[in-house]
């Protein structure tokens, strides 16, 4: 089930995203906050970014590119990008 | 047939006795396909069977040959790639000496110079091994 397939509110998308990021990257859900750094919090190396792209595509049906990540520092940036791509 | 075993080393950096692919049968941006005959003197054969490492290497070299072929088609020189990680590995069966296996690889995602690919090898239609590879292509 994707955010695009059903009428999910933006808040529901954020909460679902926090859930699957927390589970996949084994990070405390409470650390996935808009002000926190995405790379540092999830402890991402360059290969992990591919997993992140796959995860977002599988869960939210949103395709991200390498260019997209140039603008992302925090989870806030990341959520705004996803929101823009979802058209919410 | 896109590349025969006689020409395969023009497209991949591997050299004997570590060449684990014979012929590149097909290569598009969506699908790679190769075959490989398991000989008794293969360095990754043990007790008459090609080991899991040989099957994984065969998938990786199928990627190398296909990327090399596609690079040349695009009028560029083949680039060197490295296995970044191996995931979702499933081993079902090992092929015996004298068998010829078929390998199919699907590039699923690209992020910059990192490719995620899903590969599977088969013997007479039966799946032998499947895995996901992340391949980092150098400069």
Automatic annotation (TrEMBL), chain A:
Pathway: Lipid metabolism; fatty acid biosynthesis. Keywords: Cytoplasm, Fatty acid biosynthesis, Fatty acid metabolism, Lipid biosynthesis, Lipid metabolism, Phosphopantetheine, Phosphoprotein. Its main location: cytoplasm. Transmembrane segments: none annotated. The modification O-(pantetheine 4'-phosphoryl)serine is found at residue 46. 4'-phosphopantetheine is transferred from CoA to a specific serine of apo-ACP by AcpS. This modification is essential for activity because fatty acids are bound in thioester linkage to the sulfhydryl of the prosthetic group. It comes from the Bacteria. Residues 8-86 form the Carrier domain. Gene3D superfamilies: ACP-like (1.10.1200.10). It is found in: Cytoplasm. It holds the Pfam family PP-binding. The keyword Cytoplasm applies. Belongs to the acyl carrier protein (ACP) family. Carrier of the growing fatty acid chain in fatty acid biosynthesis. This is Acyl carrier protein. It comes from Dyadobacter arcticus.
TrEMBL record, chain B:
Pfam families: ApeP-like. InterPro entries: ApeP-like_dehydratase, HotDog_dom_sf. Gene3D superfamilies: Hotdog Thioesterase. This is Hotdog family 3-hydroxylacyl-ACP dehydratase. It comes from Dyadobacter arcticus.
